[in-house]
């Protein structure tokens, strides 16, 4: 596997075309688990389904939003509230809520708690966009009734089983996949942003020169039935 430096040298790294759709928002409104846990989930969303995400962080105790902003196609909040369930999902309103307090009631270690939050965030994501339960006993989308059930899940994200349904749900909400490609390919396709380093600049100039020069050895194909 190429390192980021090798990727930059070989094909200019990766870029994304301009995006005009809506985003999936993650609202981090708690301070018990590190921000990196929520960031990890958003990265998995992008890897698995290429859906664009945004994270907003606000102080614990901030009023929990239940109305989507104009550029949001969905919203998942992470809160820390005693007495509320670990997961609430309102698909018709476009939001879901994961409650850290409910996942920590048994005094779980920081490591176990973080894993629970990641799993519950993924469950919120799947349910919000129309995915269902899995038949796999160890999938995070198996029926969950207790924290023990949640801990028994062997992975932090679901299998690809619900992905097609989720993509349809996201599309209906105005969220469309963002397709990454190499900088070199973006230059060839004509929508690459201006180069930001020597590798990209060389590719930009080489592709431009190739287009201006045109084919140097054209192939002439005689039409069928032509007279000789």
Would you give an account of this structure?
- It is a single chain.
- The protein has eight helices and seven strands.
- Mean pLDDT is 90; it is low at 217-222.
- Helices cover 37% and strands 14% of the residues.
- The chain has helices at 4-11, 35-49, 100-103, 110-128, 147-152, 163-172, 183-189, 198-213; strands at 14-15, 23-28, 53-57, 72-79, 87-90, 95-99, 181-182.
Summarize the structure.
The chain has about 230 residues and is an alpha/beta fold. It contains eight helices and seven strands. The strands form two sheets. The chain has a five-stranded mixed beta sheet with strand order 3-2-4-6-5. Strands 1-7 form a two-stranded antiparallel sheet.
């Amino acid at each position: 596997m190429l390192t980021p430096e090798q990727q930059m040298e070989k094909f200019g790294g990766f870029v994304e075309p301009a995006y005009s759709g809506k985003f999936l928002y993650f609202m981090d409104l708690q301070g018990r688990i590190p921000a990196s846990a929520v960031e990890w989930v958003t990265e998995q969303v992008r890897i698995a389904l290429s859906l664009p995400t945004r994270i907003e962080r606000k102080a614990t105790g901030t009023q929990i939003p239940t109305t989507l902003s104009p550029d949001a196609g969905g919203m998942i909040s992470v809160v820390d509230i005693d007495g509320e369930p670990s997961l609430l999902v309102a698909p018709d309103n476009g939001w879901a809520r994961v409650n850290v307090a409910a996942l920590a009631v048994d005094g779980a270690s920081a490591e176990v708690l973080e894993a629970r939050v990641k799993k519950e965030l993924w469950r919120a994501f799947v349910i919000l966009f129309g995915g269902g339960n899995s038949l796999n006993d160890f999938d995070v989308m198996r029926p969950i009734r207790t924290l023990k059930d949640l801990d028994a899940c062997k992975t932090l994200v679901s299998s690809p089983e619900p992905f097609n349904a989720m993509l349809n749900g996201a599309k209906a909400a105005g969220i469309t996949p963002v397709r990454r490609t190499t900088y070199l390919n973006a230059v060839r396709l004509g929508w690459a942003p201006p180069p930001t380093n020597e590798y990209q600049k060389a590719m930009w100039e080489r592709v431009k020169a190739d287009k201006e020069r045109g084919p140097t050895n054209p192939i002439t194909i005689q039409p069928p039935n032509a007279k000789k």
